[in-house]
Design goal:
Order of helices and strands: HEHEHEHEEHHH
CATH architecture of the largest domain: 2-Layer Sandwich
Mean pLDDT: 85
Strand content: 15-25%
Number of strands: 5
Radius of gyration: 25 Å
Shape: elongated
Strand order of the largest sheet: 2-3-1-4-5
Number of domains: 2
Number of helices: 7
CATH superfamily of the largest domain: Ribosomal protein L10, N-terminal RNA-binding domain
Largest sheet: 5 strands, antiparallel
Length: about 170
């Protein structure tokens, strides 16, 4: 790689690290091309960039970003998954590493904090943004469903319900 290519690579990596809120770092030694392609495909479907890095040059690029604490993790065959959704990224990487033990998640970065591999595993167990929204909607919709079912009940059931309530008081 000549000087101009290295300079462009550093700038590209700096841009990638600053424009994404989260980074997950994994070592991929032993994965073949088909396995890497499958992982990339899964990540790409969720809008996550999976970049196999040149460690020495990446360390130079990362020094000038808020994620400089990750510098020490770029050792050996390293890849970085960059996205705005750390939970989905952690879920995909963790699921893939369970089915293929050659992928090892070694660190992450989220909300201005460097995460170790245990913290990344904990994040992978959290519900995704879509799952959390669905749960909240379900919680909010339940009282409305009960009210509608009462209003749609025949008059005799409402009378029985009112009578039962009055007997309790």
């Amino acid at each position: 790689m000549n000087k101009e290519a290295k300079k462009n690579y550093v700038e590209e990596m700096k841009k990638n690290f600053t424009s994404n809120e989260s980074v997950m770092i994994a070592q991929y030694q032993g994965l073949n091309v088909n396995e890497l392609d499958e992982l990339r495909k899964q990540l790409r479907e969720k809008g996550i960039l999976f970049k196999i890095t040149k460690n020495r040059i990446t360390k130079i690029a990362i020094k000038e970003t808020s994620k400089k604490g990750l510098e020490k993790y770029f050792i050996g065959p390293t890849a970085a998954a960059l996205s705005s959704d750390p939970i989905t990224t952690a879920k995909i990487l963790t699921k893939f590493s369970k089915s293929n033990n050659k992928l090892k998640i070694i660190a992450g970065f989220m909300d201005g904090k460097v995460l170790d591999e245990k913290e990344v595993a904990i994040i992978a167990t959290l519900p995704s943004l879509e799952e959390a929204r669905a749960k909240i909607v379900g919680i909010l919709a339940t009282p409305a469903q009960k009210l509608v079912s009462i209003l749609l009940a025949p008059g005799s059931k409402i009378a029985n319900l009112a009578r039962a309530k009055s007997l309790k008081n």
